[in-house]
Design brief:
This protein is an alpha/beta fold. 19% of the residues lie in helices and 37% in strands. The mean pLDDT is 95.
């Protein structure tokens, strides 16, 4: 299958939001949290990378949120695409999806690890579940709090949803949480050990948070993770 670029735009330094169309299909079927696999020819090499879908598909259109990795092989190439350009694609694939039934949960993300959780938080399965949901999202800078206005609006409108952003390099006038997501786990859990916890981000963060959750008494089966380097 091919994915055709419809549009793209920067949403943070070195981070771009992409809209693609899946060619030849009327509707792209994807579960929240799944990914697509892109393949491109870069400097004579065939390179394949997986990217989480950053929202629920609409018809055959789907969104990605990608970080430009300067030393990476595929992301710099993708950042050079123009509307109408095609990319070889497989998927949607993956098992990092909301459990059925969806129950009280803490979602922990850093950087572009927020992408699958944006899809979670657009799905009726999650939003209509009645579950209490906390999104703990870490970034370096305020401008890197991706989709912040969407999550703030959801926190205003959806009872039982909390949005907890934190910055490791806050500006002087930042009024919110600071430090890594690890420092705010207790606030996110609210003293509870029964919620499911979904983790998405760099391997070091995911492994460390998993360790801390186990120390707090959570069972490994309550921890659902997707990590990348």
């Amino acid at each position: 299958m091919e994915a055709l670029l419809v549009s793209s735009g920067d949403i943070a330094p070195e981070v771009r939001h992409f809209v693609f169309e899946a060619a030849g299909v009327e509707r792209l079927e994807a579960l929240p949290g799944q990914f697509v696999s892109f393949t491109g020819d870069v400097n004579g090499r065939r390179v394949t990378r997986a990217y989480s879908i950053a929202g629920l598909p609409r018809g055959n259109r789907f969104e990605l949120c990608l970080n430009r990795v300067r030393e990476g092989l595929l992301s710099p190439w993708l950042f050079e695409l123009r509307p109408g350009d095609a990319v070889s694609m497989q998927g949607p694939l993956g098992y990092f999806t909301p459990r059925v039934p969806f129950r009280d949960a803490v979602l922990v993300a850093t950087g572009t690890g927020i992408a699958p959780f944006r899809a979670f938080l657009q799905s009726a399965q999650v939003l209509d579940s009645g579950a209490r949901i906390t999104l703990l999202f870490g970034a370096r800078y305020a401008e890197s709090l991706l989709y912040q206005s969407e999550f703030e609006e959801l926190a205003r409108k959806r009872p039982g949803f909390r949005y907890l952003p934190t910055l490791t390099r806050p500006p002087a006038d930042w009024p919110g949480r600071t430090g890594r997501v690890q420092a705010h786990l207790d606030e996110a859990l609210g003293g509870r050990t029964d919620p499911d916890v979904y983790l998405c981000g760099l391997k070091a963060m995911v492994d460390d948070v998993r360790r801390l959750l186990k120390e707090r008494g959570l069972d490994r089966r309550q921890i659902i993770a997707e990590k990348y380097d």
